[in-house]
Amino acid sequence: MQIRKIIHIDMDAFYASVEQRDDPALRGKAIAVGGNSGRGVVMTASYEARKFGVKSAMPSGVALRLCPHLIFVKSRMDAYKEASNIIRAIFKDYTDLVEPLSLDEAYLDVTQDNYNIGSATLIAKAIRERIFEQTHLTASAGVSYNKFLAKLASDMQKPNGQTLILPQNALEILAALPIEKFHGIGKVTAEKMHALNIRNGQDLRSRPLKELIARFGKAGHYYYNAVRGIDEREVKPNRIRKSIGAETTFSADKTSFDALCEDIKTIADKVYERAQIAQMSGRTLTLKIKFSDFEIKTKRVTTHEAFNSVKSIYETAIPLLKSLDLNGKSIRLLGLSLSNLSMNNAEQSEQQQNFNF
Ligand code: TTP
Ligand code: MG
Q1: Residues 117, 5: contact at Cβ < 8 Å?
Q2: Per-residue pLDDT at 345 exceeds 60
């Protein structure tokens, strides 16, 4: 098997850097992106603020106590998305195997790059230079032979740095690594490990697979491999979603219009829930019906405004169902989907983002 070449790129103090770029008065200052009202939290802090201990997810009140001259800046999701689109286009230029993890970071598999450059180190350098030219923002990169190590490496010389972890150095680096720095080991697991006297990679490596699985379930297997520098996870390019839908195949075919309306309600609920999770809404609603003889009919409608409630989906779906000539034919499947999708507005995605971190 060929050794893979993986790059992990992560922008430096991303939201804060965008704010400092766009407002010269903020440059060189301790700033935090986020609200400083009662329940506000710091989304990210500039490196000047980090010196005082200000960090992501910290309540704003705590941050102000640590750094009284901290300047709070309201987030501007659109500006971050714009920068994110630019960096993603740069990544795609070098390889199709790009897996974004969030707006500001992605894995790239450059085992075979589009330009036949052949060196992941050179590619990472070129990408960082292009990012700076096109966005005036800096990025750090990690280069290694798997995702786990590439991600670890990108954090080792932040900001504006690049680190290579070669197979022959991986074990030594991992042995010395504090357990809470392992990607995939959260706060709770780290505490559990501390209680078991596992404090660094070396401690973790001394534990048998059986014990790790018994203590941590499936994740135990991942930890066991990761600490040995083994991580076979592929770089998976995210597909662009074209539609969000749900459908039901009935256990017994149905003919009653009223019964079908009830089902539509349940399906509309499901579709709306999925759209919420994806933070997307669509302007086209499609109803799909499969008859008992497997004939399929669809009917769709496109509206000016996106469907933003279960009610709007349901109330549009019912006339669609009516307009299909059912003629008492029995139906085995009913489905609804939204297409013509767009991302929900900035504030909503922002809230969602905070949950995700
Ligand atoms: P990160 O890459 O984790 O952080 P960062 O880019 O600000 O800093 P670093 O130089 O250490 O990489 O996250 C990227 C952006 O995601 C960050 O700028 C703001 C946002 N974010 C939140 O909104 N809440 C959070 O808890 C975290 C960690 C990040
Ligand atoms: Mg970052």
Answers
A1: no
A2: no
Report how far residue 270's alpha carbon sits from residue 57's, in angstroms, rounded to the nearest whole number. 31
Cβ of 104 below 6 Å from ligand 1: yes
- CB 73 less than 6 A from any atom of ligand 1: no
- Model confidence pLDDT, tens digit, residues 68-118: 999 999 999 999 999 999 999 999 999 999 999 889 999 999 999 999 999
351 touches ligand 1 (CB under 6 Å): no
CA-nearest residue, atom 27 of ligand 1:
56
Active-site hit among 19, 48, 99, 105? 105
The pTM of the full predicted model, rounded to 2 decimals, is: 0.72
Judge whether 6 and 147 are in contact, CB under 8 Å. yes
CA separation for the pair 201, 179 (Å, rounded): 6
Domains annotated on the chain, with CATH? 1-159 (3.30.70.270), 170-226 (1.10.150.20), 244-347 (3.30.1490.100)
Q: How far apart are CA 43 and CA 62, in angstroms?
A: 13
Name the closest-CA residue to atom 8, ligand 1: 13
245: amino acid identity, one letter: G
Q: Separation of 45 CA from ligand 2 center, angstroms? A: 11
DSSP letter string, 163-182: EE--HHHHHHHHHHSBGGGS
Say whether 234 is catalytic.
no
Mean pLDDT along residues 233-239: 86
Task: Ligand 1, residue 158: give the atom nearest the CA.
Answer: 10
Tens digit of each residue's pLDDT (9 = 90 or more) over 301-327 = 999 999 999 999 999 999 999 998 888
Rounded Cα–Cα distance for residues 122 and 94 (Å) = 11
Say how far apart CA 317 and CA 299 lie, in whole Å. 9
pLDDT at 354: 34
Strands across the sheet containing 31-34? 42-45, 31-34, 71-73
Q: Is the shortest distance between the CB of 12 and ligand 1 below 6 Å?
A: yes
